[in-house]
Amino acid sequence: MRSCLPDYELVAPANLREALALMAGEPGAWKPFAGGTDLMVLLEAGKLPHKRFLSLWHLRELKGIEVSPTAVTLGALTTYTEVLRHPVLQQEFPCLCQGARETGGVATQNRGTLGGNIANASPAADSPPALLVYDAELELVSATGSRWVPYRGFHSSYKQMDLRPNELIARIRLPRVGRPRRHYYRKVGTRKAQAISKVVFAGVAEVEGGVVRDVRIALGSVAPTVLRCAKTEAVLRGHPTVESTVAAAQAALAGEIAPIDDFRSTAKYRRRVSLNLLAVFLQSCLGTVEQGPGPEPWYGA
Amino acid sequence: MCDERHKVNVTCRVNGREYTLCVFPLMRLLDVLREELRLTGTKEGCGEGECGACSVLIDGELVNSCLVPALQVNGAEITTIEGIADGDRLHTVQEAFIEAGGAQCGICTPGMILAAVSLLGRMPEPSEEDMRAGLAGNLCRCTGYMKIFEAVARVCQKTGTKVNA
Questions:
Q1: The whole model's pTM is what?
Q2: Which residues in chain B have their CB less than 8 angstroms from residue A110's CB?
Q3: DSSP of chain A, one letter per residue?
Q4: Is the Cβ pair B133, A57 closer than 8 Å?
């Protein structure tokens, strides 16, 4: 049933300072409201228990993409459209652009924000696996100051995160690497647009002479939170991408993920697809398949 | 003033005309358009951002009006299907949809046309893939989409730009 609109408040603070002051005045009373692409769905379904919201959409302090020699820093209100149109992100962080391109459709991409996607804390979200493989850091601000935290470890359990009631996510920083890397992003859903993932996979690797020098792997929809797969990475690091390494990495990944049956897919399917995508990623590191969506699954091991 | 429990004043321009409304801040833009302004050309499909039937333009950008709260359009310029024709003269995209048979039951059509207008606005020479991506958020359960893509391609022919295969 629809929510009763008179029960809800949405106020628009004039600037970030005012927003943070309101949050500091009554910790936990006000929750942030960015582009509305998740919260409006809950409102319409009568499933929005919190009643008082701060509209952040117009706050300039939380917008814009800054490029420095060492990092790209995105305001938390950066929309998917802004992500996928940005030339430096396209060049150096293609998994993030691909994730943005495959989120909803154009209308959702115009309103949905990276900060909102993070704070919504869905384990099935499209951009967080990309943020994880690029070692993103988050700036959390409050009326009393700011702190930078690694995005990895930000989500402690299902829908839980390291964000205090008086804090907002202000910026997302992606360190620039400056060395050539292989990037692979693949979202598996019922259709290309307007679908929530059954499995989403992001991987980035530095490969030299067939040997994995460094690698980062993250998945969505296979655990209570989006997941950086450190054990699988450890199996691969320093090893050649030969079949036996692929098999060992798949075994490690099978132990790291914890997919479930739900209305979108089954644990069995998610497990199989996760292992296949890992193999496709490793093949792509050797340059034997194209990166990105398209290649046939490689049913190794 | 506008003080009935939590209601707020929202001023925006819709199809070139300025309105000041007293509404609940979380009222959906879709309901503002249809119920406050009687602009019923914008349709409700799913009401959860999945189908695109309620697409309108805010400051030139395509949005699902069912997911935008009234407060966030304060100061914005909104274009609905009622605002794209020039008086009695239809917009080129509207003409092309008629000529190509790009509409059947009509529920998706206003949103589909605004998505096409938005696509052609930022990409006058879309490839077939661009067209599919540009309209991917707008579902049609009648046409099978081919006549809709044909309509978009017709616009490009008319305006002298070509559709890249």
A1: 0.94
A2: 61-63
A3: ----GGG-EEE--SSHHHHHHHHHHSTTT-EEE-S-TTHHHHHHTT-----EEEE-TT-GGG--EEE-SSEEEEETT-BHHHHHH-HHHHHH-HHHHHHHHTSS-HHHHHH-BHHHHHHHT-TT-SSHHHHHHTT-EEEEEETTEEEEEESTT-EEETTEES--TT-EEEEEEEE---S--EEEEEEE-SSSSS---SEEEEEEEEEETTEEEEEEEEEESSSSS-EE-HHHHHHHTTSB--HHHHHHHHHHHHHH------SS--HHHHHHHHHHHHHHHHHHHTTSS-SSS-PPP----
A4: no
